Amino acid sequence: MGVVDREFEKLEAAFQAKVEAEQRIEPKDWMPEKYRQTLIRQMSQHAHSEVVGMLPEGNWLTRAPSLKRKAILMAKIQDEGGHGLYLYSATETLGISRDQMFDQLHSGKAKYSSIFNYPTLNWADIGAIGWLVDGAAITNQIALCRCSYGPYARAMIRICKEESFHQRQGYEIMMTMAQGTEEQRDMAQDALNRWWWPTLMMFGPNDSNSAHSAQSMQWKIKRQSNDELRQKFVDATVPQAEFLNLRIPDDQLKWNEDRGHYDFGEIDWEEFRNVVKGNGLCNRERLQARVDAHEGGRWVREAALAHARKQEARKAAAAA
Ligand code: FAQ
To answer: Biological process (GO) annotations (predicted)?
Structure first.
């Protein structure tokens, strides 16, 4: 073994010891290149998910049933945009630029959560997204508040607080509809039927098929596995559905006394793979909307840069 290899092993051992000791890794600390790449992948996917996630709900802003509902939905969607911004900033600390991340998204190279490729067909879907999608997001993100990478963990703390409000507003929409007219109750049930399985897919493949889990758990990027988090979400959500008097669309869902958890049916992994590959109901529409928004904002970015350059030139001229 050469001197360089020995030096590298020492650095890697010190890094892992720091992780084991629950000390946060900060941007200027030494880190293995694969750790950096794994974080860039996960955090940029997460940032893209927040921003693409604004689109399905944005579809209902102009048709919210009251001014109050519209104001709440607008605040929620703006929060998601903010989450994207914290996450893009946190990812930039790893040495990738925002432009590079946008290029990866717009060229279709980067992934974002499969859930946002499903359509929002009626108002009840807004309730289901808040209740289920934000509920699943919090379940996953609470674990990420203890992620070994400092900037990601810190961003998650604030994001989780805001996601809790999102989950409550969604559940409150569902409660209103489930206790409303027969038609409203049917809409709430129909939304639950359509969003349940895609929500379970948000947690990713089963642990046995999860390419990154083992390494990410060792590095304490992930604190709980995909299956553990999915189970946690199911256990928390079933009583909430019961309270609403709505039925979760899974014949195999049953409390298992021995395990102390709910058993549930198998996810349609073929559908998951297809959506992730780009063939979901809304993949093309979502990506096009992001590309159009980026192009539409080009003149604003150019004007801001031109203004900054002019200010700098004036300052330089005054100092000369
Ligand atoms: N969709 O080896 P694993 C939100 C990919 S935010 C698409 O298990 P990992 C807020 C995965 O990237 C929701 N792709 O991967 C909101 C990998 O592919 P790659 C987003 C998926 O990273 C609410 C491959 O499969 N949350 O909802 C999905 O260890 C309402 C193998 O998978 C986050 O991003 C999927 N569902 O675990 C906004 C949380 N699942 O990259 C608006 C942070 C897996 O090798 C409205 N992310 N893949 O090409 C994570 O915790 C992890 O990345 C997992 C996946 C758990 C998602």
So the answer is: phenylacetate catabolic process
